[in-house]
Design a protein that fits this description.
Distance between the termini: 97 Å
Number of helices: 22
CATH class of the largest domain: Mainly Alpha
CATH topology of the largest domain: Rhopdopsin 7-helix transmembrane proteins
CATH architecture of the largest domain: Up-down Bundle
Length: about 675
């Protein structure tokens, strides 16, 4: 009793002094003296209750007035919102009515607790509704600080700390009371001293008071506020239900309450971390509370941040896809970039690994995108095919599950690529606002991708320049070797019968051969200029396997679909497959296995080379495997894999790689069939 009386008495004195100081300070626009005076009166009544042991109802009424006074103080800041449009979109009149309704409910519940005494009315008036007031106070404090200007936070941070501490302590007090069926005496006794400690913070904030209360409430503020209030209401309801189970459960009451509260908390966590729930909440708020769906300043900052984060030149495509997809709450996206042959092939994906396909440069759908520069809603086009002027998308694009938007990427009116976005988690409907936003973002993403491609092309060009410079030195060495051998041949006419000359000649020839072999290892021989024609893949693969029989590890050939034909240069294609098989042999230990399989997949021929070697990680495959002049071999130049992929794509096919460290690799060559067999 003495501790509680002293605690609340100290709070009454502290807030009375604060109210008097505020009145004399001249900062009348803040009106801090009103809630400070209400808090002083409440603390004085609480001290009296602690001393005489009666008057709980009067203290509860004074506490309601105190809470409403502090909420009213925060409301004064919200009224200074900038711009009438922002005020209208937020519906601040509804927010004010909600606060008044909560206060009226508090007063009504306290009146019912006096007229109709009982556990239910007491629980509602003295535990549930005070918890709601505490949650409302924390929400307003958090959002006021979050959305105030940076230059004003120096002046308001102590005010937010003080009010946040006040409402947070109340929330802890009453939530504990709901769980334990009563207010903890020690927690209640310390409450007065805790409030007294907050008075100096309010005084410091008063001294730092700026001239106005500028505040900008954004889409994010509405989202966090609704989410926090919803979570608070949910917890209150679950706590009440748990308390009911404890009362009616008999001997099992405590166990049932614990299990129920744990399950309720787990359900809340699942909902909070659900991408679909968050997306649909954002869509609901944007649809019903704002004239515009997006906070464009915040969206643009997030979009550019995603594009530019991370190491330069690394995961550029994936970051661009993620940035575009997040604008419309899409969970997956695929990028098809224009290649050297003019066709559009899958270059990268974000959460959509099973999506595959390519667009021909002459396809009517590509021509339509180049002409109209529209963002195509595939769902709308299925319902109204006349929108595409008979330029229907390819079957593999329409037939893929969950495809939604096709976003063209233009760079100086040249179609650089196409992004395909999956269905939105929030079930967003495509309209003019989304179209304008995605068009603007697509221009920015296209510029970013074009810059990355130009930087990569410049790097390759510089590497080729270095290669040409190195080749010039090799040619110089060859000329020296030719001169040396020519001189040796000229001297052989006179000294060929001398044993000393013969030994010297053999040593010179051996040295020259060794030097030339070293140069040949570093240089890739120039292919012969032979024309492309129809070749049988099974015969070509048998030739490749025979050429590798000299190795101790012999590859195994399996032909599931014989007589498959493709149009290609036989020598080039043989060298491509031979290079991949050779790499598999070199990467596999003596006791391992290397296999080559030929099969048909619809209109494609698939050549699969598998091994049980050392394997590769995903980063190496993505960033280094097919880059020129990047090799892990001591004597390699890093050109073989680059030329393999370039030639396969030149034929209209592609190479995909699946590999895991320590388990082996799988190279799949997909080539278009010449004729059906």
């Amino acid at each position: 009793m003495l501790v509680a009386t002293a605690s609340y008495g100290l709070a009454a004195v502290a807030f009375a002094g604060l109210a008097l100081a505020c009145r004399r300070s001249g900062h009348t626009e803040l009106r801090l003296h009103y809630p400070a005076a209400a808090t002083s009166v409440w603390a004085l009544l609480a001290a009296t209750q602690a001393w005489i042991g009666a008057g709980r109802e009067l203290v509860a009424l004074a506490e309601t007035v105190r809470d409403l006074a502090w909420l009213w103080l925060l409301w004064q800041g919200i009224q200074h919102l900038r711009g009438a449009a922002t005020i209208d979109t937020l519906g601040l009149v509804g927010l004010r009515r909600g606060l008044f309704a909560l206060g009226a409910a508090m007063l009504l519940a306290q009146g019912m607790a006096l007229l109709v005494p009982g556990r239910l009315t007491s629980h509602l008036a003295y535990e549930i509704l005070p918890t709601l007031l505490a949650i409302a106070g924390m929400v307003l404090v958090e959002q006021y600080y979050r959305n105030s200007r940076l230059q004003d936070r120096w002046g308001i941070k102590f005010l937010c700390l003080a009010l946040g501490g006040l409402f947070a302590y109340d929330f802890y007090l009453y939530s504990e009371a709901m769980l334990l069926a009563g207010v903890a005496p020690d927690t209640w006794a310390a409450r007065g001293a805790v409030n007294a400690l907050l008075a100096p913070l309010l005084w410091v904030s008063l001294r730092r008071r700026p001239g106005n209360w500028p505040m900008a409430i954004s889409h994010r503020m509405a989202f966090h506020s609704v989410a926090l209030v919803g979570a608070g209401i949910y917890l209150i309801l679950m706590a009440a239900a748990g308390y009911y189970l404890r009362i009616v459960g008999g001997n099992w009451g405590a166990v049932l309450q614990t299990v129920f509260l744990f399950g309720a908390a787990a359900l809340l966590m699942v909902t909070v971390f659900s991408g679909i729930a968050r997306a649909r909440l954002r869509v609901f708020l944007s649809k019903h509370f704002f004239h515009y769906r997006y906070d464009y300043r915040e969206e643009w900052l997030r979009f550019t941040s995603l594009l530019t984060e991370g190491e330069p030149g690394v995961r550029v495509h994936e970051r661009s896809l993620e940035a575009m997809a997040r604008l419309v709450e899409s969970p997956a996206a695929v990028l098809l970039l224009k290649q050297d042959d003019g066709n559009f092939r899958r270059t990268a994906h974000w959460n959509w690994s099973d999506f595959n396909g390519q667009l021909s440069a002459e396809h009517p759908f590509v021509r339509f995108l180049e002409k109209r520069q529209w963002i195509v809603d595939l769902h709308e086009c299925e319902e109204q095919p006349e929108l595409l002027d008979e330029a229907m998308p390819p079957a593999w694009l329409v037939g893929t599950a969950h495809t939604w938007l096709v976003v063209p990427l233009f760079w100086h009116d040249v179609l650089l690529g196409v992004m395909v976005l999956a269905d939105s988690l929030g079930k967003i409907k495509f309209d003019w606002e989304i179209s304008d936003l995605l068009k603007t973002a697509a221009r920015q993403a296209a510029a970013h991708l074009a810059q990355a491609r130009a930087a990569e092309a410049l790097t390759v060009a510089r590497q080729f320049e270095s290669f040409n410079r190195a080749a010039a030195f090799v040619v110089h060495d060859i000329k020296n070797l030719v001169a040396q051998l020519t001189l040796l041949l000229a001297n052989a006419q006179r000294h060929k019968h001398k044993p000393e000359f013969q030994e010297d000649m053999l040593a010179t020839i051996e040295s020259s051969i060794a030097r030339m072999n070293r140069m040949l290892v570093k240089l890739h021989d120039k292919p012969e200029a032979t024309g492309a024609g129809a070749i049988k893949l099974d015969a070509m693969l048998e030739e490749v396997i025979r050429s590798k029989n000299a190795f101790s590890l012999k590859p195994v050939l399996e032909i599931h679909s014989p007589e498959l034909q493709v149009r290609a240069d036989r020598e080039k294609l043989t060298r491509v497959v031979g290079h991949i098989v050779q790499n598999a042999i070199e990467a596999t230990p003596y006791m391992g296995k290397v296999g080559v399989t030929l099969a048909r997949q619809e209109g494609w021929a698939e050549v699969v080379v598998t091994d049980t070697g050392v394997g590769m990680d995903e980063a190496f495959i993505r960033e280094r495997l097919f880059r020129p002049f990047d090799s892990t071999k001591g004597t390699g130049m890093g050109i073989g894999a680059y030329e393999c992929k370039a030639y396969v794509q030149e034929l209209g096919g592609d190479i995909t790689v699946d590999s895991q460290l320590g388990q082996g690799s799988r190279f799949t060559l997909r080539l278009p069939l010449l004729t059906a067999t």
